[in-house]
Amino acid sequence: MAIPQVEPSRYAEQLAAKRDAVTQLFAEFDTPALEVHHSPPSHYRQRCEFRLWHEDDDLFYAMFEVENAGADDRGRKTKRTVRLDQYPVASEAINALMLKLRAAFLASETLRRKLFQVDFLTTLSGEALVTLVYHRPLDDAWEAEARALEQALGIMIIGRSRKQRMVLTRDHVWECLYVDGRALDYQQVENSFTQPNAQVCQKMLAWARDVTAGSQSRDLVELYCGNGNFTIALADNFRRVLATEISRISVASAQVNLQANGVDNAYVGRMSAEEFALALKGEKHGRRVADMALDGYDFSTVLVDPPRAGLDDASCEQVSGYERIVYISCNPVTLAQNLALLTRTHRIERFALFDQFPFTDHCECGVLLTRR
Q: How would you class 210 by CB atoms within 10 Å of its CB: exposed for 0-12, middle for 13-18, buried for 19 or more?
């Protein structure tokens, strides 16, 4: 993997290249004009993780790049260690903490000994959670120094080692996103998935609200809902929302977020997309299915936000049964494969590019499809 080379002066150029690449990839489809949503040109990631590299008495943050030269004598790709004193991809809060934490590690044998990795989770609302990963057990001496460091830097710290997780204050941050003039509060738990580019996430949520407007008399079903990122923002566009997610941590966080935002017309159930498809057909039963009370819904719209692999053929067939499909994709290649199936029954009404990861090849897309 190549480390992004951030050049703010070239941001418009790289965004235009992404626009052209997406337009070309989907040229075979009858698509409307591509809506392009830009990112801040630097300091856009609210979460990052780094290896902590030790050299004699020094230590520094590091990432790894695959060498172009090829593989070693065992056929493995060779990697180059890249020192990072600052990281312009990361939020300004992360960059400030990188300097302060490194100074603290250098000054403390207790904090630095066998420190292997440092993970940062920050928010637009000003909170910061740092996870320190060690190759040794954590003891009372470590806890005392880590608590003092928390206090000195105004952050929260979690210590991790094999079979050990020490949460000093709490294991999550609270992010506040502003969407259509509304403040939405999200609990984001350490080591679970959240959208890394919060500024672009706000634009994605606003776009999703726009394309689903006028649906208050019908219901939304959401697959892969995570911590309720879209669920919270879209709930008042629909009569009711039923959201599903397989991760136990994300489901618990989504339920907390529903309560924090006063959303009372949404239910989040722990179930995979495949299990949910069976439940809708009446081929899966049990307490979790009963709790969903599926007979009470009148679904007009489905929202899917799948992993990079996209939807399998069975899932495409399932979602094609809804009048409207909102597809959020982190991989244009698998999105194109899925659209080849979905456009047999639906037409593309809206198509958007969200530049979640500037100066990389990664693109996030949003598509609204309506039944032909």
A: middle
Task: Examine the residue annotation and report whether 363 is marked as an active-site residue of this protein.
Answer: no
In the numeric block, the tokens 């350490």 are attached to 190
Marked catalytic residue, from 330, 349, 363, 365? 330
Radius of gyration of the chain (CA): 22
Q: Tell me if the pTM is above 0.85.
A: yes
- Do 51 and 38 share a structural domain? no
**What is the enclosing helix (H) or strand (E) of 251?**
helix 248-260
How confident is the model over 161-178, as pLDDT tens digits?
999 999 999 999 999 999
Catalytic one of 48, 190, 364, 365: 364
Q: Is position 176 annotated as part of the catalytic site? A: no
Q: Quick one: pLDDT band at residue 142, thresholds 50, 70, 90?
A: very high
Both 108 and 143 in one domain: the answer is: yes
Residues 220 and 361 in one domain: yes
Q: List the beta bridge partners of residue 175.
A: 186
Q: Cβ contacts of residue 314 below 8 Å, gap of 6+? A: 274, 277
| Spatial contact of 350 and 211, defined as CB atoms under 8 Å apart | yes
Do 103 and 166 fall within a single domain?
yes
What is each CA distance from 179 to 22, 102, 199, 225, 276, in whole angstroms? Answer: 26, 36, 10, 18, 29
In this structure, are residues 61 and 84 in contact, taking their beta carbons and an 8 Å threshold? yes
Environment class of 351 (CB within 10 Å of its CB; exposed 0-12, middle 13-18, buried 19+)? buried
pLDDT tens for 321-342 read: 999 999 999 999 999 999 999 9
How far is 344 from 310, CA to CA, in rounded Å?
A: 17
